[in-house]
Automatic annotation (TrEMBL):
Catalytic activity from the UniProt record: L-glutamine + H2O = L-glutamate + NH4(+)
Gene field: glsA
Subunit and partners: Homotetramer.
Protein name: Glutaminase
SUPFAM superfamilies xref list: beta-lactamase/transpeptidase-like (SSF56601)
Family designation: Belongs to the glutaminase family.
PANTHER family, per database record: GLUTAMINASE
Amino acid sequence: MDLQNLLDDIVGTVQPLLGQGAPADYIPSLAAVDTKQFGISVATANGDVFSSGDADVPFSIQSISKVYALALVLAGDGDRIWKRVFREPSGNPFNSLVQLEHEDGIPRNPFINAGALVVTDRLLSIVGNSPSPVRELLRQESGNSSIDADPEVAASEATHSHRNAALAHFLASYGNLENPVDSVLEAYINQCALEMSCTDLALASRFLANNGLRGNGTALLSPSQTKRINAVMLTCGTYDAAGEFAYRVGLPGKSGVGGGIVAVVPNKCTICVWSPGLGRSGNSLAGVAALDEFTTRTGWSIF
Ligand SMILES: NC(=O)CC[C@H](N)C(=O)O
C-alpha cells in the first residue's frame, strides 16, 4: 500500500466538498475559519508518518480532547468513572440538555459535553489543572512542545458557554461534580481550545492503535482499557451520527467542531483528517468523506 499516493489522491477526491457545510458558529472565533482547507495525516504503528494537504496547519481540537481526558482518567483511576457516566450512544446532539434530566444527572457517555464535563471534573480531582494534563500528554506523545490553547478561542467559548454552564450546574445539582462548576468549565474550555495539526494529532493518538503504549514504550493504558476507549469512540465518538460513521468509515473515531476527526485502525495506524465545514451533527463533511475513501481503498476497517 503506497500510503503517500493514497493520501494525495484523497486530497483530490474531497476537493468538491470543500467550502460545503458550515464552521461551528456558536463559538464566534471558530466561525471565521476558511472552510476550503483540508488536511490528512497517518501515523503508523511502526513510527512512519504520511501527510497531505493542510496537514500541518494548526486547528482547534475541540471535542477530540475528550478522548485524552478519558484516557488520563482511566489511567489514573481505573473503572471508577463508569459509576458517574454511562457508555451508551446518546442519539442526541452533543450539547443536549434533555437527556440529562431524564437520566438523573448521569450522562449517556463520556464524549457528549455532559459526560466530558464529568470526566474533566474527575481529572481535576486526580491531577489538578496546572499544567493542563491533557496538554502535557498531547505535547509528549506528539513530540511538539509548543502545543497550547488558543486564548482567543478559549475566551470566545467562555463568553458563549451558557449551555455547558447549564449542563455543569445540572450535574452539580445531582451531586455528579466534585469541583466547583467554574473550575470544571475553565479546564474543559481550555482543553477544547488546544491547537494542533493533523500530524500532531495522528502522532499523539498512537497509543490508541498500540494497545495503550506511549511513544516511549511505557504503558499509559492496558490493552483492555485501550480496546474499550476505541469501543466507546466507535459507538459515541461522532454523536448522533455514530451509526452513519460506523457504516461509512468502520473505525473508532472522535470528531470536534473545529472540523478535525481522529480515527484508529487498531495495531496499524491512526489517521487525522481536518476540514472546518461541518454537517448537521457537527462532524467534518470532507473529513468523513476522506475517511470513507481511506477505509474503502485500504480495506482497513475493523469490520
Ligand atoms: N463537539 C464539539 O467539538 C463541542 C466542543 C465545544 N467546546 C463545546 O463544548 O460545545
